[in-house]
Amino acid sequence: MKTILVAFTAFLFSGIAKAQSIYISKDAQVSFFSSAPIENIEANTNQAVSAINMNTGSVFFKVPIKSFQFERDLMQEHFNSDYLESDKYPYAEFQGKIEPIPSIAKDGTYPVNVAGQLTIHGVTKPYQGPGTIEVKNGQIIAISSFKVKLADHDIKIPRLLLKNIAEVVDVKVNAAYQPQKEAGDARSSKSSS
After folding, report:
1. What is the number of other CB atoms lying within 10 angstroms of the CB of residue 179?
2. What pLDDT score does 171 carry?
3. For the chain, where are the alpha helices, taking DSSP H only?
């Protein structure tokens, strides 16, 4: 997990950026909901990692597919083996930007637009939608929701199960970010312990 954070922190640092502008979430929550005539399907994970650069608006998410938890084990098994093929495609990723970039100097809730590229099941597609950034006591909370059409990511549903699984699922993201510590800060905190 640490190597994932290092990789996308490097992405956010492309160009010159102050460390104070980088915020990291190591336990972002992602959920999806599929409403279908026979059965609703819902899954959640709190193992997504994310970083956001509050100078440039760049944002990155990486979600381990196998970390999604379902109400029933059989659903989870089919999700991983038959639909998302999580051994072959272990992560979903999003790289994009938020606009406008809210000021982090003042507490408040700010509406933003999120736009970027979402990769699921090895297929990358553009997505955009509304979100909010809440700034409170130096912490940033980002919330967004959007719809994913399974066919857009080459996720096939057998004809027999078309009434069980919706063709479009609602995805929700909720990430609480902390400021990325500078290298000097990390060394001094280790030496003081």
Report:
1. 17
2. 96
3. 2-12, 73-78, 183-192
**pTM value > 0.90:** no
The CB-side HSE value for 57 (13 A sphere, CA atoms) comes to 15
Counting Cα atoms < 13 Å in the Cβ hemisphere of 100 gives: 6
The conformational region for residue 11 under phi > 0 = left, psi -120 to 50 = alpha, else beta, is alpha
Q: Which two tokens stand for residue 85?
A: 């093929």
* Residue linked to tokens 């059965």: 39
Identify the domain containing residue 20 by its residue range.
2-192
What long-range pairs does 127-131 form, CB within 8 A, spacing at least 24? Answer: 127/94, 127/96, 128/96, 131/98, 131/173
Lowest mean pLDDT among 37-51, 64-78, 156-170: 156-170
Count of the separate structural domains present in the chain = 1
- Tell me how far apart the alpha carbons of residues 117 and 107 are, in angstroms, rounded to a whole number: 29
Task: Give 15-46 pLDDT, tens digit per residue.
Answer: 444 457 999 999 999 999 988 777 788 999 99
| CATH classification at residue 60 | 2.40.128.110
For the ranges 37-46, 110-119, 165-174, the one whose mean pLDDT is highest: 110-119
